[in-house]
Amino acid sequence: MSNAVQEETAIKNKRTNYLLNIRNLPPIPNVVLRITQLLNDPMTSTQEISQLLNQDQALTTKILTVANSPLYGLPRKVPSIDFAILVLGFDQIKQIVIALSLMDTFRNENSKYWNRKAFWTHSFITALMAKYIAAEKNLPKTSEVFTAGLLHDLGISVIQKYFNKEFIEINELVSTTQISYAEAEQKVLQLSHEEVGRILCDKWNLPVSLSQSILFHHKPSGAEEHKELAAVIHVADYTTCKLGLGKFLWDENFAIDESVVDVLGYGSVEKLEEMIYEQEEKIKLQLETLIF
Would you tell me how many other CB atoms lie within 10 Å of the CB of residue 194? Predict the structure, then answer.
């Protein structure tokens, strides 16, 4: 067997091992299963949902933070879970709980190459901006957009927690050679963080629209389905880089995929960026009140 064939075989075996390890990740959090069961039952009352969520004070606080966000667009303050359920509705509450719970599953400790607050902040601002864009464009299923935005970079968190040796290698490769994180991921893992996120969505039986938006959030023009959702997440992600607010290191040199202009009906990149700058003060206000 030639050296080239041996190397290719070794790469395929390594990739297979990564995929197997990813598929052995923890099951979907129990609170997600419970909230989904309750909300899928037409006989479930607001009180039952409220009682379940109020058992987790940290989750309750985060839900209220989302509901009271300047970017979420509610006309009045939401003081309680009961009121949040009333004004947001069951489906939006379900999506928020799913997103927050899944993110919390991969809450990692700070280290040399990992800033937990920076990652959370970036994910949260992207989610809120995505929700704003979807509402502005009157897109269907705007509640699902928040989930997609919050989880779009979940693959990075998975790599950091479960493949920490390779995570360090990726960061050191970027630092020493000045290549992009995307290139470093392929050199070290033969997988992108988008692919890791997609695999995780499939493992947890999350909607295809969600896994597709995660897989194509850097290149929505490559999506064959659910292109609108991928485009929304792409623009929201781009916003953090364009404004320098809530950006994350792995998105350094983020380039806009201009296909989103037509997909979302902005007319031009300039018009899209006007919309982004119009939200700058709201994002700054959000960053001042962020609790994560």
Answer: 23
Estimate the share of the chain in helix, then strand, then coil, as percent rounded to the nearest 5. 70, 0, 30
pLDDT digits (tens, 9 = 90+) for 78-92: 888 888 888 888 888
For residue 242, what pLDDT is reported?
94
Per the model's pLDDT, the better-predicted residue between 30 and 221 turns out to be: 221
Instruction: Find out whether 197 and 153 touch, Cβ atoms under 8 Å.
Output: yes
Residue 23: per-residue pLDDT: 61
Q: Which one-letter DSSP state was computed for residue 195?
A: H
pTM of the model: 0.85
Query: What is the enclosing helix (H) or strand (E) of 197?
Result: helix 193-203
Structure tokens given for 23 = 């598929």
Strands (E) in the chain, as ranges, are: none
| Domains of the chain, start order | 3-289 (1.10.3210.10)
Are the beta carbons of 29 and 105 closer than 8 angstroms? yes
Q: Is 136 exposed, middle or buried (0-12, 13-18, 19+ CB in 10 A)?
A: middle
Q: Say which residue the tokens 């009271």 belong to.
A: 68
pLDDT confidence of 107, banded at 50, 70, 90? confident
pLDDT over 70 at 172, yes or no: yes
Q: How many CB atoms lie within 10 A of CB 217?
A: 30
CB atoms < 10 A from the CB of 109, how many?
8
SS (H, E, C) 9-54: HHHHHHHHHHHHHHHCCCCCCHHHHHHHHHHCCCCCCHHHHHHHHC
